Amino acid sequence: MLDAIGAASVDALIDQTVPPAIRLSAPLPLTGAKPEHVALAELKAIAGKNVVKKSLIGMGYYGTLTPNVILRNVLENPGWYTAYTPYQAEIAQGRLEALLNYQQMVIDLTGMELANASLLDEATAAAEAMAMARRVSRSKSNAFFVDNATWPQTVDVVRTRAALFGFELVFGNAADAAQADVFGALLQNPGQNGEVADLTDLIIALKAKGTVVAVACDLMAQVLVKSPGEMGADIALGSARRLVCRWASAARTPPCHPRRAQALGARPHHRRVGRRPQQDRAAHGPANPRAAHPPRKGQLQHLHLAGAAGQHGRLLCRVSRPGRPAHHRRAHPPPRRHHG
After folding, report:
1. What SS3 class is residue 18?
2. What residues have CB less than 8 Å from 250, skipping those under 6 apart?
3. Structure confidence by residue, pLDDT tens digits, 127-175
4. Secondary structure (DSSP) of 167-234
5. What is the 8-class DSSP label of residue 259?
6. Residues contacting residue 233 through CB under 8 Å, at least 6 positions apart
7. Partner residues linked to 287 by β-bridges
8. Alpha carbons 197 and 245: distance in angstroms, whole number
9. Of 119, 90, 89, residue with least CA distance to 106
10. Which helix (H) or strand (E) holds 162?
11. Of 115, 109, 73, nearest to 94 (Cα)?
12. 3 state SS for 31-75
């Protein structure tokens, strides 16, 4: 590697890449090992020096308040996320149930028919929505419209993905989207300036031209405003960090990616996905969460190591592909009939 990049040594590579202003001139003055309670007390004292100020960054990043009852009974309850066999990298039934609940909540808030949450952040979900729109749309255009009110971090990821796919990006105000010849459109509501708009007429005009419409929304705002599904959008996306995830986990904001049933066959293609939670109902007994179409062992280990869905600020789930409904499958094979 050093020969390929032209560095004489690892130290020389570090000198070239790490600014001197942030490097220490001497090794860290680490002391010997300490008991856990002593180390925790010292860490708490260091954390107490933080000055908590009101964040005004906006653009999808807002302060949140997690009710203690949810914090204790869901995020800090290992029954929701630990495997039923500690020595195997398998997902817990409790976590499957939590993912099912999350998917249903996203469906209810966005007014869509299906939900997906395996894309790690809102910006990536927007890029996947663009790719999905290209697969679903019958338009011959190679251009994709991006609303000027879209978060800048989302625009950066969409721009990178469009360059790799060879898509042309058209930027403009949402009101002018119907005038562009595009295969898909990304609209932000509420927008970067905080404006909330009813996009129903605009979405109708776009879909009349064969454009697939994706709306980036705020899950918390959907409690009060008209949902993307009610406005006729094909795809909705956003971040669920507003609900329970604190600033400490803002590096990985759990996204939502609901869409209509017509787009199921073109669902997002993403390698870092979890199992597809479903409900399996036996001939007798209650419905049980299950993971349909389990992935490879390495992905199982990724799921296990990911930890609690909300605790680490991400929720991994994916809807099952079309096929026989889970509640119609037999939990056990039928008994053999002996003749004679």
Report:
1. coil
2. 61, 241, 313
3. 999 999 999 998 999 999 999 999 999 999 999 999 999 999 999 999 9
4. PEEEEE-GGGGGGS--SEEEEEES-TTS-----HHHHHHHHHTT-EEEEEEETTGGGTSPPHHHHT-S
5. B
6. 112, 187, 199, 203, 213, 214, 215
7. 281
8. 27
9. 119
10. helix 152-165
11. 73
12. CCCCCHHHHHHHHHHHHCCCCCCCCCCECCECCCCCCHHHHHHHH
Token digits of residue 253: 């904001």
Residue type, 62: Y
Task: Spell out the residues 6+ positions from residue 334 whose beta carbon is closer than 8 angstroms to its own.
Answer: none
Between helices 152-165 and 122-136, what is the axis angle to 10°? 40
Structure tokens at 73: 């009974």
Q: Full-prediction pTM beyond 0.70?
A: no
d(CA 114, CA 309): 19
Q: Are 180 and 169 in contact (CB under 8 A)?
A: no
Six token digits for residue 144: 């994709």
- In whole angstroms, what is the distance from residue 108 CA to residue 45 CA? 43
Strand pairing partners for 277?
A: 291
Question: For tokens 């969409």, what's the residue?
Answer: 158
Coil, helix or strand at residue 127: helix
Q: Which tokens in the block code for residue 217?
A: 């929304």
> What digits encode the pLDDT tens for the residues 183-219?
999 999 999 888 999 999 999 999 999 999 999 998 8
Distances (CA, A) of 225 to 30, 199, 238: 53, 11, 15
**Coil/strand/helix, residue 245:** coil
β-sheet bridge partners, residue 289: 279
